[in-house]
Structure formats: structure tokens, C-alpha cells
């Protein structure tokens, strides 16, 4: 049912420049998308227009040029760096005698290739079904009549109506299954909130180096590659930060300009990790000339999923691609870290990121002097488990004098668990 390419296919690429900013696409990024999809680009047909042509998207002369290129290079598919209407795709295919795939379908297809988890596959299929539901007519024009004949008399609906009904039923089933997965995710989040473990979410433009940084910080083996959408399924890992304790780090899908709305909608469950994080690490490829535009696109998607009000720490990654740039922490007027310059691939400046995370997440740190009698040895053991004792000595009566330093949330949690004893042991 899905009109997708096959790996190793030969393609003619089409890129049109428009004067309006919201209609522009990036040719270099499109070529990376095509490469990520495993398609071999034979040639690129470019042009300029003020507005899309209603019949072919491009002008009739440019459409003939594309058809000639298909014949000359014996191409299997035409890939457009733009979103086409169903009628434009149909008209171009009739003219060029070749399959036509637009930017949205290509992105959906890359996501379909990369999905590994059950949830990721369901989300991609849902997005594909939403996208294809408006394009069914193209594949069934020869069957637009009611079923009839011996053994074929059906419910009196056309083949097209049957397919639309089957699509709706499949989409409904997928949504029900995704709701079940979302409930499980929600339970996991509630358990982490009850344990008061903060979540840090990696966000950023696709291919900014998020998964490489994630692997360096957590010693995980998440797939990382120099291609668009190398990561699709969210991955959670636990790290320990000095003076903060346990922290959950979440690696999420990268964003891209003009990300298909169906895809954003389908991935809202996955992106909840971003929406409900305590802190976002916005990873930026600082060596990319389009970094300012890429950052704006990420902020736009974050606003769309209602995750734009969460504290951000900017990670200027890939400094090894620049000359005379060394790892450092930039701070605001209050001395709070706002930017960290590093290279995840070259393992440069990661200790500064740990330092910045400790400062940002461990801002509310408490220090107390405790006098614990020998009878409360269990509490002393608990404090050692929390790794919060900075100094220990004993007095003549055998009482343990402890200097403790820990995050405020850990202290409040301890008070809840051992309220009556702990309050009495604080030395003022």
C-alpha cells in the first residue's frame, strides 16, 4: 500500500527555489535525506518559481525537462524536495512515466526504515496511513466502481470506499495500541517522579550529534551515524552526578525543518519525554553554517509539542571542526551555566558538561551537621549509601558527628522516611 522507494534505486532529484521563507527548502539537506534513505541520486533538476504550479508544481517546461532527465538517466523514481498534492503527483507520474515521491513521503519512509521498537513502528505506520489516506484515489482509478459479478457481490461500496474504511479501522486499532503503550510510559514517569529522579532530555536538529553525546555520557551503545534520523526510538539511561545523585538521560528523535505534521502528531507520545523533562540539552552542530536557522526550527517544534517553557542548556557540539575554539562554559549574569562548548566525538569538554549539569540540577543543595548516637547506626548506613558524607568523626560518648551535603530533594525524601529521628540529630 505504501508508495516507497527500494534501497539502491536510481533517482532524479527536483529542487525549486521560492522567494517566500516558509516555502524554501535546503538542497544540501535534501541530498543528505536522499543519501540516508539509501537512494542513488543521478542528477538534480533545479529551478525558480514565485508560486507552485497547480498542475505539475513546477512549470510545464520544467516538467518536460524532468521527464527528459528520467529518460536520459533511466531513473526509477523522481524525488521532490517539496510537499506535493495528490493531483500534482498523479499528473507528474502520467507525464514522466515514473513514480514520484515528495519530501514528506521520503521522510516517512526513512522513519519506517529506522523504527526498531514496537511503539516506534506503530507511530510511523500511523503517520504513513494519515498521509496516504488522501492519496488512495491514485492507486485505484481502475476499480472505481461497485463490486459485482458472481461471488463478488459486496456491500455496495466502491473499492475506494472499502480501502478508506479499512484504513480508518487500521488507524483506530493503532491508536488504541499506542494509548496502551502511552499508559505504560506514564506509569514509568510516575515512578521516577515518586522517586524524585530528574530527567534530562537531549533535543536538537537531526545529525547534531545527540546520540554520540548520549553514548559518551552513559557508556551506552545507541546507534549513531553521520546521517539524518540515525536515532528514532527514544532511549533512557541512568547516570550519577556528584552532589545531584541519579539522573535519567533521554535521547530523542532529531528535528528537521518542515517536519511533517502527521509525524509530529504521531510522535507526541515519544516526545512526552522531552515535554516533561526537568532540563533540555539543546545540542547544536556549531560548525554548521545553518546553525541559527536549525536552532529556530528546533524551537518551533518544541513550541508545537508544548515543550518550549522548560529550562535549556545549549550544547555547542563539534568544536573539533573549528579552528581556535576550546571547550568552555558560558554563564549568565548570575553565574548560571547557559552554554557548554565541547566535542562528543573527540571526547573533548565532557567534564565541563558534567560540571554544568551538576550546577544547574544541584542548585538546591543543603548542608547539615548531624550528631548520630550509636543506637541509630542504620541511619548512618543510609547516609553512606547516599554518598553525601563529607566529614565524619566521633566524640567521647561514641556519637557519630557527620557533615553531610546533598540535594534538597534527597534531604526532604530522607525527612519523610525518618522524620522523628533525623530532626533531633541536626546540630544548630
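^ C-alpha cells above, recovered residues below v
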Amino acid at each position: 500500500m505504501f508508495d516507497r522507494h527500494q534501497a539502491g534505486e536510481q533517482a532524479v532529484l527536483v529542487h525549486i527555489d521560492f522567494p517566500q521563507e516558509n516555502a524554501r527548502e535546503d538542497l544540501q539537506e535534501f541530498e543528505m535525506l536522499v543519501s540516508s534513505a539509501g537512494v542513488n541520486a543521478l542528477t538534480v533538476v533545479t529551478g525558480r518559481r514565485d508560486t507552485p504550479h497547480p498542475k505539475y508544481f513546477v512549470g510545464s517546461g520544467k516538467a518536460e525537462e524532468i521527464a527528459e532527465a528520467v529518460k536520459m538517466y533511466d531513473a526509477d523514481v523522481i524525488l521532490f524536495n517539496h510537499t506535493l498534492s495528490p493531483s500534482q503527483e498523479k499528473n507528474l507520474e502520467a507525464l514522466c512515466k515514473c513514480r514520484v515521491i515528495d519530501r514528506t513521503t521520503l521522510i516517512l519512509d526513512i522513519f519506517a526504515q529506522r523504527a526498531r521498537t514496537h511503539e516506534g513502528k506503530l507511530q510511523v505506520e500511523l503517520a504513513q496511513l494519515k498521509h496516504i489516506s488522501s492519496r488512495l484515489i491514485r492507486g485505484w482509478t481502475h476499480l472505481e466502481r461497485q463490486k459485482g459479478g458472481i461471488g463478488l457481490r459486496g456491500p455496495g461500496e466502491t473499492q475506494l470506499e472499502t480501502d478508506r474504511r479499512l484504513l480508518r479501522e487500521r488507524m483506530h486499532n493503532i491508536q488504541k495500541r499506542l494509548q496502551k503503550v502511552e499508559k505504560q510510559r506514564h506509569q514509568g514517569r510516575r515512578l521516577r517522579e515518586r522517586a524524585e529522579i530528574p530527567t534530562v532530555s537531549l533535543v536538537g536538529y537531526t545529525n547534531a550529534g545527540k546520540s554520540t553525546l548520549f553514548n559518551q555520557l552513559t557508556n551506552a551503545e545507541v546507534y549513531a551515524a553521520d546521517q539524518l534520523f540515525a536515532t528514532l526510538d527514544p532511549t533512557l539511561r541512568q547516570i550519577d552526578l556528584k552532589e545531584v545523585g541519579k539522573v535519567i538521560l533521554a535521547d530523542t528523535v532529531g528535528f528537521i525543518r518542515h517536519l511533517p505534521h502527521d509525524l509530529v502528531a504521531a510522535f507526541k507520545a515519544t516526545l512526552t519525554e522531552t515535554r516533561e523533562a526537568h532540563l533540555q540539552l539543546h545540542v547544536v552542530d556549531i560548525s554548521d553554517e545553518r546553525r541559527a536557522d536549525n536552532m529556530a526550527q528546533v524551537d518551533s517544534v518544541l513550541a508545537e509539542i508544548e515543550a518550549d517553557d522548560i529550562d535549556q542548556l545549549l550544547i555547542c557540539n563539534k568544536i573539533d571542526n573549528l579552528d581556535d575554539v576550546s571547550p568552555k562554559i558560558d554563564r549568565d549574569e548570575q553565574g548560571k551555566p547557559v552554554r557548554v562548548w565541547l566535542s562528543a566525538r573527540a571526547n573533548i569538554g565532557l567534564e565541563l558538561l558534567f560540571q554544568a549539569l551538576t550546577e544547574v540540577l544541584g542548585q538546591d543543595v543543603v548542608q547539615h551537621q548531624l550528631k548520630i548516637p550509636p543506637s541509630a547506626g542504620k541511619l548512618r548506613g543510609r547516609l553512606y549509601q547516599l554518598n553525601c558524607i563529607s566529614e565524619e568523626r566521633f566524640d567521647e560518648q561514641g556519637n557519630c558527628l557527620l557533615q553531610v551535603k546533598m540535594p534538597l530533594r534527597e534531604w526532604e525524601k530522607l525527612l519523610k522516611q525518618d522524620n522523628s529521628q533525623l530532626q533531633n540529630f541536626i546540630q544548630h
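The radius of gyration is 28 Å.
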